[in-house]
Amino acid sequence: MSVKEYIRERYFPHMWCPGCGHGTILNSLLHAVDQLQLDKKDLVMTSGIGCSARISGYVDFHSLHTIHGRALAFATGVKLSKPELKLIVPMGDGDALAIGGNHFIHAARRNIDITAIVMNNRIYGMTGGQFSPLSGAGKKATTAPYSTIDSAFDVVKLATAAGASFVARSTAYHVLETIDILKKAINHKGFSVVEILSQCPTHYGRKNKEGNASQMLKFQKDTTAKIGSKALEKNPLLIPRGIFVDNDVPEYCQAYDEVIERAMKGRKA
Q1: Using CA atoms, how far apart are residues 144 and 156, in angstroms rounded to an integer?
Q2: CATH architecture observed for domain 3-268
Q3: What is the pLDDT of residues 43-53, one digit of tens each?
Q4: CA distance 232 to 125
Q5: How far, in Å, CA of 124 to CA of 265, rounded?
Q6: Residue 118: enclosing H or E segment and its boundaries?
Q7: Where is the Thiamine pyrophosphate enzyme TPP-binding domain (predicted)?
Q8: Which pTM value belongs to this model?
Q9: What is the DSSP string of 34-79?
Q10: Tens of pLDDT, residues 147-173
C-alpha cells in the first residue's frame, strides 16, 4: 500500500494553519502505519476536540471524533470490546492533560493497549490561544496577557509515573525519528505515550515572539537532544528526545480475559 491509501483525500487541503506542526505529525503517522503495512480495517483512531482532534477526519481508518478530553475513554471502550484492533489516540496538550488528564493517568495505570499521541503545541489553538497545562510559566496567551504563572507538566515524567509501559518524545522537526518512534509505539503491547512537540506560529509563536514556522522548527532542533547524546551531557537544559520507557508488563485486556476465564471455571465447578 502507499501512504495515500490511508487518507481521505476528499477532505484535503486540511484545516490547520499554514506552518502548523500538526500536518507534519499526520504525515509521520501515515508513514509509520504504511511502513508497518497495517490493514486499515484493523486500525481505529479516536480523537476529542481541538486542532489536533481534527486529524481523525483525514485518516481512512475506522475513526471516532468524540468529545473534549474523552478520546481515551472512547478508545478504552473500543479496545475492550474489540481487543484485536489497534487503537491510536491523537490529543492536544489541553485535550490530553487538562480536561482529559484523569483519563490519561488511568489509561496509563491500566496499561491498556492504546497508542496515545500528545501533539504538544503549548497552547489552545482552535479556541483563540488560551494557555494550556503545557505552556509553562512566563508565557503569554490570550488568557495570560501579562504572562502565565502556572508550571507545565512534563509529559514524559507524568506518563512514566502513572505507569505507561512505553513513553517517548520527539518533535515535528525530527520527522524520521518520529516515524521510527511511532512504529515502535504502535507495535508495543501496552499503553504507549508519544509526546511530539509541534509549532503553533498563529497563536503561541506570535504571542511569545518565537517567530514564524521555520524559526519555531529551528528552535525545536536547537533546544532538544537525543537521550545519551554528548549534546545533552554538555547542556542538561536541553529537552531530551527518544524512548524513555519500554517495558514488557501485563496488558489490561489480556489480564481482563484471564479474570473472565477464572470466573467461568469457577461457575463450572
Answers
A1: 25
A2: 3-Layer(aba) Sandwich (3.40)
A3: 999 999 999 99
A4: 30
A5: 51
A6: strand 114-120
A7: 49-196
A8: 0.95
A9: HHTT--GGGEEEEE-SSTGGGGGGTBSSEEEE--TT-HHHHHHHHH
A10: 999 999 999 999 999 999 999 999 999
